[in-house]
Every structure is written in C-alpha cells, then in structure tokens.
C-alpha cells in the first residue's frame, strides 16, 4: 500500500466505481480525500467507508457547472489548506453507432469527459504551481488510445484528455507537478449501464466485458502505485484490450483490421442485444 500520509486528494466521480475505490485506497494509505460527484447519498456512503468527516470532505457538484468551479476550488483547498492530487475521474460513456447518434450526445460527452476535467485542472493548477508540488491524474480509457466501435464520442473525448495531459506535462514537469494519464480497459463499474444511447437516453444495461472486468480496488492500487513510481501513462487492462494500444503504435493497420472485423462480425448487434 502506498503511503499517503498528510496528503489530500480531490477525486471527481467519487461516488462509485474507480473513483470510490481510489478514495478508499488513498485513505487506507493515510491520506484524506475531497469527494465530488452528483449523488450526495452515495458520496456519504463512500465517506463513511473511509472514516467519515475526519478523513473525507464531501463536495458535490455537476462537473459542467463551470461558473461554480472557482468557489469549489477555494472550498477544496481550504479544507486542509492544500490539495496534493487532483483525480479527474468523472465521466460518461456511449454505446451507439455514429450514424445513429445525435450531435447533442457528442456535445454532452465531450463536455463531461474532456472540457470539464480541463476546466477543473486549469482552476486547480495555480495552487499546485504555487506550492511547487502535486499531481494530476486523468482517468482516460483504452478507448482514449484506440478507436473502438460504438464509442465515437467517448473515444474523441478520451483521446483529447490524453492529449491535454501529455501537453500539460511538458509545461509543468520542471515545477514539481506530475501528470499521470490512466487508460483502463474493462472494469467492473456502472460505466456501460450509465452509457448514453444514440438518442441521449441512458442505456440501462451492462455488458459481458464490463461484468467480467477488473476489480476497481485492484485498479485503484495500480494507479496509486504508478503515481508513487513517477509513471506518466499506464494502461490497466487484460487480454486483447491490453495489447491494443501497443498494436496501435507499432502496427496500426492490424488494429484497424481487427476493429473493422469486429463490426463486420456483428458487434453492434451483439451489444444492442
């Protein structure tokens, strides 16, 4: 377990899944957490599991409410006098073919998965620069490294988040600030159940890949260990998902053929079924 004594992490999307697991692991290592999300009851449950108000500060908000961000940053940093780690974890996925997807869905997913974490990071960045220490963790996805069918909006946003993190890292690396991009594959969360369909409705069901995915607790441990080790990007996946980003870099045509064959083989119909 990574030692997080006297550190404060601000985690968005902390009410469940990877976010909740990151909070529990961080507190178990001696740290304190600011827990953000929309579901106050779920945040209170996570806080209770993490030791209550002595170890957690609940700060609920909608990530696209940009006007509130300056006040939220003031509250988060004021709780313990600092924030050491910002974890951009809040997000929403998609399960629909491009030609069935309304443009409003693209707008919503890009707002939540790309512009919202950029807005929060930009607001927290001055405090990190002033203290000459800290870290930013962006929870992207294997779909942020690879074009995956039925996720055109999600892929666009998650690719963008990695690009933002990579560029930001070059600017702050000499000022004591780490930027770690995480690309998880299938993890046992509600990501598929909460994904948007082409008309913007919530999908409402999971899929086998997610249901058989990695345990969020294991993913959380890998993330905190990666930050401790000074890593800049980590793919957390198994099987074919784990090999896809490397294939994209070294033999992209093979990956393109693989993805096209997936669709030709009825992937969309299987997902809809």
Task: Give the spatial strand order of the biggest sheet.
Answer: 3-2-1-4-5-6-7
Number of domains: 1
Q: What is the name of the CATH topology?
A: Rossmann fold
Q: Please name the fourth-level CATH homologous superfamily.
A: NAD(P)-binding Rossmann-like Domain
Instruction: State the shape.
Output: globular
Class based on secondary structure composition and strand pairing: alpha/beta
CATH class: Alpha Beta
In percent, how much strand structure appears in the residues?
Answer: 5-15%
Summarize the amount of helix as a percent range. 40-55%
Query: Number of DSSP helices?
Result: 10
Taking the alpha carbons of the first and last residues, their distance comes to 41 Å
Explain this structure to me?
With 273 residues, the chain is an alpha/beta fold. It has a single domain (8-242), classed as NAD(P)-binding Rossmann-like Domain (Rossmann fold), CATH 3.40.50.720. The chain contains ten helices and seven strands. It has helices at residues 17-28, 40-49, 69-80, 103-131, 152-172, 208-211, 216-228, 239-250, 252-264, 267-272; strands at residues 8-11, 32-35, 56-58, 85-88, 134-139, 177-184, 233-236. Strands 3-2-1-4-5-6-7 form a seven-stranded parallel beta sheet, with helices on both faces. Strand 2, helix 2 and strand 3 form a beta-alpha-beta unit. Helix 1 packs across helix 7, helix 3 (69-80) packs parallel to helix 4 and helix 4 runs parallel beside helix 5. The longest helix is centred in the middle third of the chain and has 29 residues, at 103-131. The radius of gyration is 18 Å and the shape is globular. The mean pLDDT is 96.
């Amino acid at each position: 377990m990574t030692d997080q004594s006297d550190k404060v992490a601000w985690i968005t999307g902390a009410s469940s899944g990877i976010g909740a697991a990151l909070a529990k692991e961080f507190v178990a290592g001696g740290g304190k957490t600011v827990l953000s999300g929309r579901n106050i009851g779920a945040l209170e449950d996570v806080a209770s599991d993490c030791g209550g108000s002595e170890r957690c500060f609940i700060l609920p908000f909608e990530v696209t409410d940009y006007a509130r961000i300056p006040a939220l940053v003031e509250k988060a940093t004021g709780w313990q006098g600092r924030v050491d780690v910002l974890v951009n974890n809040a997000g929403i996925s998609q399960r629909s073919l491009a030609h069935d997807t309304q443009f409003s869905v693209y707008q919503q997913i890009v707002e939540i998965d790309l512009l919202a974490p950029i807005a929060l990071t930009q607001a927290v960045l001055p405090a990190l620069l002033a203290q000459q220490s800290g870290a930013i963790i962006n929870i992207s996805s294997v779909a942020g490294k690879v074009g995956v069918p039925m996720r055109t909006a999600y892929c666009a946003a998650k690719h963008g988040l990695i690009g933002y993190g990579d560029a930001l890292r070059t600017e702050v690396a000499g000022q004591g600030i780490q930027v770690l991009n995480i690309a998880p594959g299938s993890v046992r969360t509600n990501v598929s159940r909460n994904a948007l369909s082409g008309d913007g409705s919530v999908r409402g069901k999971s899929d086998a890949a997610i249901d058989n995915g990695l345990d969020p607790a294991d993913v959380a441990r890998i993330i905190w260990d990666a930050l401790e080790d000074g890593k800049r990007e980590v793919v957390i996946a198994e099987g074919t998902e784990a090999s896809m980003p490397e294939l994209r870099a070294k033999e992209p045509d093979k990956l393109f053929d693989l993805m096209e064959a997936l669709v030709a083989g009825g992937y969309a119909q299987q997902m809809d079924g």
